[in-house]
Amino acid sequence: MKQKRRIISLVMASLLMFSMTATALPPLEMTDMTEALYRSNVITPILSASLSHSFEDAVIANESTWIPLHDTEGTEYAYFVPLCNEKGMITGFSVIGNINGNHSTLFNRNNTMPDEFAMAVISAYQNRNTGDKMIYSFPYAFIIGQEGSYKRVYANGTIESVTDIQQYETNAATRLATTPYEIQDVQLDADADNVYAMLDHWAVHDFVPIVDTLNNDYIYYGGSQNWLANVGYSQDVFQACGLTAAANTFHYMSQYVSGKSALYSRLNLTKTDFSYFQKDLKDNAFIFDDVIPGIPSVYKMEEYVGNWARYRGVSMTAAKSANGWSKTQYRSHIITGLNSERPVMLLTGFSPIERLEHHWVTITKFYSPAHSLTENIIVVSNMGAKEEHSFDQWYSTSSANYKGTIYFN
């Protein structure tokens, strides 16, 4: 275990830097000294061992800042643990179980930038009303409140009312309570995915949830280029993958990024609506070259997206990869984009990954799975479906001069 693996012991007033501005983070409530010692002497070493697999540079925040997490029945079963860098900036968080002697790591998230999701959860808890509890619904939902008044905390800092708390029911507390681990068996526990970055609304039925009203209200995971055939552009289906990746991006940003609502030109999100939205893009912005089909580079994508942004009166600035980028540079670029609530579009040329070859897709999440923490996985929207692919294989086997990533601010 590296020397960097240690615990912050300084007072949290100097801990936090958020959006590159120092902000005080006062200690949260501590029940008693026994609890403090238990967190420090028992739980922290277990979490530290789990983090050492992929987050060796993360620093665990002082135990006094941890937030107790409950299930929807009111059972306290886990802790929200802020993670920091060496300068005390909040860069992520872990969720670790705390019931019946079980301290399994449920979730890890950390990156090199200030983490808005972690800060949003901390802020909501610090500003809670008397009697409010922080509910954690595995794996991504944090809800603050009490019976009759619940609000969900989102990664971009917004808090929205929850009308049906039962949709966040979790059996995590029951699972932890009925399958306890001995402490010595958990010290090298790595049962959690290491999530480096994700859109706040990345999940199925949440990311661009297009409803097919003619097919029992089936919900797609983003759009499909094939749908252009339904609106008079059959001849362009084969080269419209980039247009569709952009369409996914436009809709997502219109919903969740301030100042971008005009990017989506339709009132609803049925398959028919989205198909005509793709037609809008084709008619007004994505005028394909007769010589070179589709969108062959991130520079051409920047041009087409700029056409649509100007047409809709929206300011858009590209953050794009460059030729010759290293694996680390691509990885950092994707993580930065997703953690800024920007879908990241991925271009692939020649590749043994059949579903990605000569194709554009939209990345929604970047993580390492619990069973293989050295592997990097991207979750993408591809042809209206959620897929997972190896980022490592994409980088090492795809053609070097015909690949790229791009997102927009």
Please outline what is shown here.
By secondary structure, this protein is α+β, with helices and mostly antiparallel strands. The chain is built from nine helices and 20 strands.
Helix segment count? 9
Strand content: 25-35%
Mean pLDDT: 82
Low-confidence stretches: 1-31, 179-190
Taking the sheet with the most strands, its summary is:
16 strands, mixed
Question: Could you tell me the number of beta strands?
Answer: 20
Shape: globular
What is the helix fraction of residues, given as a range? 25-40%
Using brief descriptors, characterize the structure shown.
single chain, 409 residues, alpha+beta, 16-stranded mixed β-sheet, two-stranded antiparallel ribbon, 20 strands, 26% helix, globular, disordered N terminus
Could you give the topology of this structure?
Elements: E1 16-18, E2 21-23, H1 33-51, E3 59-60, E4 67-70, E5 76-84, E6 90-97, E7 105-110, H2 116-126, E8 133-137, E9 141-146, E10 149-153, E11 159-162, H3 172-178, H4 183-186, E12 194-198, E13 209-212, E14 218-221, H5 241-256, H6 271-284, H7 298-312, E15 318-320, H8 327-338, E16 344-348, E17 359-368, E18 377-382, E19 385-390, H9 391-397, E20 403-408
Parallel strand pairs: 4-8, 7-12
Antiparallel strand pairs: 1-2, 3-5, 4-5, 5-6, 6-7, 8-9, 9-10, 10-11, 12-17, 13-14, 15-20, 16-17, 16-20, 17-18, 18-19
